[in-house]
Inverse folding.
């Protein structure tokens, strides 16, 4: 069947609309064509889309692809995902494809006016490791929240490291006991300690390491305030099975990215 490339909208604002009446099947399903003539050619897309162009001030360009998951009409059912994607499988010794690949739109003059490769308007769950070149938190500026943002970089480490800290005052003979949460030793291993005395010159040591949910600090003077920090490496079952590789030998060849398709 030959489909038109242009037409007048008649159904819900769409030029071409399909409704699937048979249960359990998609309304539109496509297979991409084989790769081009070269040995490293790119196979065709199963589904492709190009958003409409915005030509006047105040307009917004159309989406290349838009999807809304099916609603659940009863409490025991689950709504569907707006977009569901899975990468292609690979033979033995090969590298499987990515589920989703996205690029930002280019700005007219510089990267400051470029778009985002992805935007999420709510919570995001990643069931696996998250790899990134860098990262930051963007929060409202505390002194001008209506007009400014404040950027804070992540604290980064090659380990799955947790950080805990606090302040404690030693008693009349110099010791102080710091109690940790009940789950602390189950979650962490390889503890590291930092101590800083506050308000006076004094010496402070870790008198006893973490055991039975606590550790002890001792100063050479009584009544000394000590700021402490303890770090630990995650040792829960998921972390033990998914350690972050420190220096992986990965190349772009292992995960080839499709060439951008120009309009």
């Amino acid at each position: 069947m030959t489909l038109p490339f242009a037409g007048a909208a008649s159904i819900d604002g769409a030029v071409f609309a399909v409704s699937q009446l048979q249960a359990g099947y998609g309304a539109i399903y496509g297979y991409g064509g084989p790769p081009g003539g070269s040995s490293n050619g790119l196979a065709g897309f199963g589904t492709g889309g190009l958003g409409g162009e915005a030509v006047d001030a105040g307009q917004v360009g159309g989406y290349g692809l838009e999807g809304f998951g099916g609603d659940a009409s009863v409490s025991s059912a689950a709504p569907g995902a707006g977009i569901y994607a899975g990468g292609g499988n690979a033979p033995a010794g090969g590298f499987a494809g990515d589920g989703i690949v996205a690029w930002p739109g280019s700005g007219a003059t510089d990267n400051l006016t470029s778009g985002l490769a992805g935007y999420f308007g709510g919570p995001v769950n990643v069931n696996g490791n998250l790899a990134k070149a860098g990262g930051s938190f963007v929060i409202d500026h505390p002194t001008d929240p209506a007009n400014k943002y404040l950027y804070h970089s992540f604290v980064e480490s090659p380990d799955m490291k947790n950080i805990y800290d606090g302040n404690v005052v030693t008693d009349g003979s110099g010791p102080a006991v710091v109690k940790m949460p009940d789950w602390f030793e189950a979650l962490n291993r390889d503890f590291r300690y930092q101590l800083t005395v506050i308000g006076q010159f004094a010496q402070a040591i870790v008198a006893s390491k973490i055991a039975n949910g606590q550790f002890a600090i001792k100063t050479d003077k009584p009544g000394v305030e000590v700021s402490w920090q303890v770090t630990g490496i995650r040792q829960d079952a998921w972390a033990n099975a998914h350690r972050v590789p420190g220096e992986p030998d990965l190349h772009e060849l292992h995960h080839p990215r499709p060439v951008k398709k120009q309009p």
